[in-house]
Amino acid sequence: DADVTQTPRNRITKTGKRIMLECSQTKGHDRMYWYRQDPGLGLRLIYYSFDVKDINKGEISDGYSVSRQAQAKFSLSLESAIPNQTALYFCATRGGDGPQHFGDGTRLSIL
Amino acid sequence: KNQVEQSPQSLIILEGKNCTLQCNYTVSPFSNLRWYKQDTGRGPVSLTIMTFSENTKSNGRYTATLDADTKQSSLHITASQLSDSASYICVVSASTGGFKTIFGAGTRLFVKA
Questions:
Q1: Which one, A7, A10, A69, B101, has the greatest CB density within 10 A?
Q2: CB neighbours (10 Å) of residue B84?
Q3: How far apart are CA A109 and CA A11, in angstroms?
């Protein structure tokens, strides 16, 4: 089983809909992150959390919200999806000074 | 402005050949630099990490170099294999309060038989 699991893997939806992307991890890491990846650009940080009670905005948090339901779960919500939020979304975890461990992504298309 | 630039954007090589990917950065103050490999349809996976005092680090057929003075890093792949076909992402972190990690856009490598 994967250490970092993202659901769904693919999602197509319409403008204005509310969408939730979920991430769960079995690595026991406190730190969790949400990124988006667009063609020709590096991954950009949306939100990050260093523990259950700690939520921080990244560089592109507008239009997104997150919830850290437990150490192992970190969900990303788009309250009212718009087409320019079409992208590949990645969740990652990190323990101490180690590398980030990424899920396999959610491909989101907003029509 | 903190930036990470990678070159080339894409590269095609024949199986068995060597190649070198480049990363230039302006992230400051520098903490560490990592190279990740991202297979199609998968998340990135860490290959190496380099700190200020390190100038070479190997992981199997992958060798990363770092020149902190010129703010350049390279990833050299030896005796390429078809499974090396992937995107290679350079990631630089700053040693500053808060969280500051900048991802390059990646180099897309195609290894042909």
A1: B101
A2: 20
A3: 6
Half-sphere exposure of residue A28, counting CA atoms within 13 Å on the CB side?
A: 0
Q: What angle do CA B51, B53, B58 make, to 5 degrees?
A: 65
- Whether residue A48 lies within 8 A of chain B, CB to CB, comes out as yes
Residues 6+ apart with CB under 8 A from A98: none
What the block records as the tokens of A25 is: 């991890």
Give CA separation, B100 vs A76, A86, A92, B93, B106, in Å: 20, 24, 15, 6, 18
Question: pLDDT tens digit string along B56-110?
Answer: 999 999 999 999 999 999 999 999 999 999 999 999 998 876 668 999 999 999 9
Min distance B84 CA to chain A CA atoms (Å): 18
Which of B4, B46, B106 is the closest to A99 by Cβ? B46
The torsion angle over the Cα atoms of residues A78, A79, A80 and A85, rounded to 10 degrees, is -20
Among residues of chain B, what percentage have pLDDT more than 90? Answer: 82
